[in-house]
Amino acid sequence: MNFLKKLINDRRFIFFVWILLAIIAGLKQYTKGSYNNYLIFKHVYIHAIERLNLYLTYPEQYGDTNHYGPFFSLLIAPFAVLPDAIGTILWQIANTVFLYFAIKQLPLAYRKVNAVYWIIAHELLTALFSFQFNISIAAIIVLTFALIEKQKNFWAAMLIMLGTFVKLYGIVGLAFFFFVKKKWTFIASCVIWALVFFVLPMVFFSPGYIFQCYQDWYQSLSEKQALNASLTSMQDISLMGMVRRITGNISIPNLPFLAGGLVLFALPYLRVKAYSNLDFRLLYLASTLIFAVIFSNSSESPTYVIAFTGVAIWFMVQDRPYSSWLVVLFVFALLLTSFSPSDLFPKFVRENYIKPYSLKALPCILVWLVISYQLIFKKFDQVNANT
Question: Any signal peptide, and if so, which residues (predicted)?
Answer without folding.
Answer: none
